[in-house]
Amino acid sequence: MLTRSDILAASDGAAVAVHRPESQGRVLLVCEHASRRLPASVGDLGLSSDALISHIAWDPGALAVAERMAELLDATLISQRFSRLIYDCNRPPESPSAMPEVSEIYEIPGNRDLSPAEKFARTAALYVPFHDRVASEIALRRQRGAAPVLVTIHSFTPVYMGKRRDVEIGILHDDDSRLADAMLNGATEGYRVERNEPYGPADGVTHSLRLHALPFGLLNVMIEVRNDLIADVDGQERAAGYLARLINAALGAFDP
Question: Contact at 8 Å (CB) between 124 and 13?
């Protein structure tokens, strides 16, 4: 049977990265699709180089925005170090899109007909340590009496399946809309900001929120930024500053 060690070799390093672990801010940032890197054990999954640098492999610009937001918010950031093509950490193991055979227009030969053992090994190597680390950080903060605010950072393509997306920033939520409501109420000029766009809970994108925030009543939100707006340092700085200000202003509504 395949094991975790069959997926990640010592030379691959850890599945999860923790940025600014000593930060004191109340926000905990999470970036599930931060990297397009693949473990050596899976090669290129049978994909072209164009596919492997495209949005199907990662969320371009999301990590850079999240890292800058971590500085502005004095926040800890937890990010995945490998591509969502090997395992999408914003999907539960039972979801077909956790290890997709097809993503957008691309077939993924290396994900076709995976055995239960292969799926288990990927889950153990990537999904479990990532979400264990998020859960541990939340538990530590709750033990200290400081309930964290969970914010996940993503990016999306300006064109999907031939259709142009006009939304620039999406503020997404599941059953708990408190923080999203406050952010949307405070959204100022500068970006076209919309609720649960270009995705929403029905698309299965709020797994991390459902896993880590909803059971504990933690304030939470998922943020999507159109990736053409964060393709360079200036765009990343602008988006990070805007979002940090929006979050800080929204959290003011929940202060005692």
Answer: no
**d(C-alpha 177, C-alpha 163), whole Å:** 28
Contact, 172 vs 244, CB < 8 A?
A: no
The radius of gyration computed from the CA coordinates of the chain, to the nearest angstrom, equals 18
**Is the confidence at residue 254, as pLDDT, over 80?**
yes
Contact 208, 95 (CB under 8 A): no
Q: Are 123 and 86 in contact (CB under 8 A)?
A: no
pLDDT digits (tens, 9 = 90+) for 61-93: 999 999 999 999 999 999 999 999 999 999 999
Residues 34 and 79: beta-carbon distance below 8 Å: yes
What is the architecture, at CATH level 2, of domain 4-254?
Answer: 3-Layer(aba) Sandwich (3.40)
Strand pairing report for 106-107 and 102-103: antiparallel
Of 44, 234, 212, the closest CA to residue 139 belongs to: 212
pTM: 0.96
Give CA angle at 211 (209, 216), nearest 5°: 85
Q: Buried (b) or exposed (e) across 233-256, using 16+ Cβ within 10 A?
A: eebbebbbebbbebbeebbeeeee
The domain limits of the chain are 4-254
The answer to whether 224 touches 153, Cβ cutoff 8 Å, is: no
According to the 3-state scheme, what is the secondary structure of 58-106? CCCCHHHHHHHHHHHHCCEEEEECCCCCCCCCCCCCCCHHHCCCEECCE
